[in-house]
Amino acid sequence: MTTSNAERSSPTRKTAIPIADLQRFIASVLTAVGMPAADASTVGAIMAQADARGADAHGVFRLPAYVKRIRAGGINLRPDMRIVEERAATALLDGDNAMGHLVMKRATDLAIEKARRAGIGWVGTRHSNHAGPAGLYARMPLEHGMIGIYMAVGSANHMPPWGGIDMLLSTNPIAIAVPAANRPPIVLDMATTTAAYGKVKALAQRGQTMPEGWMVGRDGKPLLDPKRSDEGFLLPIGGAKGYGLALMFGILAGTLNGAAFGRDVVDFNKDYQSVTNTGQAVAAIDVTAFMPLAQFEACIDDIWAQMKSSELLPGAQEIRLPGEQSAITYEERVTHGVPLHAELITALDTLAADLGVDPLV
Q1: Alpha-carbon distance values, 269 to 45, 169, 297 (Å)
Q2: DSSP secondary structure letter of residue 226
Q3: Mean pLDDT for the stretch of residues 150-154
């Protein structure tokens, strides 16, 4: 597939890339900067899944920044990940500053293993890194008939405590995934801010403006230019309630694990060398510890039907459940590929040329 210079210059031009091609490209880039092939393949698969499910600000979009961090020595490509504390249903995993995707894949696998034996598995991480969208890790237990829960301390502070202006909190996301029988799983994947900062960065790359309500300046007035995001901060969901959620998720995913939180968080958007000591937590809950899986999944299908059957508010088009749009997007992108903006294609082409690997397009 080829794209002309004229097509790439169009701000609305998108090119659809097959998911397998995206995965191979990511892996080839990571291998070129020294990551072992097996690890590069694992990270490539997880990042490509982020794009496949519509988390466009957390997939291949992040690759140039990851490469900068690897080249600057900010990520350990030969980590010795180890369990430092462990009980029957819990563990603390030290990622040894590995790519966050690798740390979280191991942590999630461990949580699932523990849930098989104990009914629940909770694994915290420290010395990890940015790992992409929360929903990917909450989804992993679904394949084992389990509920998945994930939370993390964001990799940069972009929000003050409610009523303040000092950047002490991040987007601190949470995801919860619940299996269903004949419906897509219900998957809540959300930041505790009105918008994830990755979306701000994506709009800046494309030269677009932010909707009002995403950010405000330190004067409290709306901030719409994503290229001026350093002049303001993200707003929490639900006002003070969102601030409270960000605080508590940060404590559970960061402080509890001996990971960075508050003033200790390193801004990985600006500092490519310092160890971030990112903290995350993932839990797997074996449904059969409470009821037969088929019975539970049937109940979730019924909940789907109840929500969908609600009478619509005037002006509303339909009722959707969390994760429904992601499921629709996934089916579309499996068939037609992942649409990438021209600006991102250009950035990836530049990266490929610099590393001497085949371009994506």
Answers
A1: 23, 15, 41
A2: G
A3: 97
Give the list of residues 6+ apart from residue 207 with CB closer than 8 angstroms, or none: 11, 343
Residues in the chain: 361
Q: What is the pLDDT of residue 342?
A: 93
Same-domain status, 183 and 226: no
Backbone phi, psi, residue 19, to 5°: -60, -40
The verdict on pTM exceeding 0.70 is yes
Q: Which residues pair with 340 in a beta bridge?
A: 15
Domain count, the chain: 3
Give domain status of residue 198, yes or no: no
Q: Residue 134 belongs to what domain range?
A: 78-193+236-336
SS3 9: helix
State whether 242 and 329 are in the same domain. yes
Cβ pair 300, 181 in contact under 8 A: yes
Residues 262, 240 share a domain? yes
HSE-up (13 A, CA, CB side) for residue 222: 7
Q: Copy the structure tokens of residue 79.
A: 């980590």
Bridge-based pairing state of the strands 82-86 and 14-17: unpaired
Q: Which amino acid is at 212?
A: E
Residue from 174, 213, 168 nearest 191 by CA: 174
Tell me 239's DSSP state: T
Which residue, 146, 145, 138, is CA-closest to 177? 138
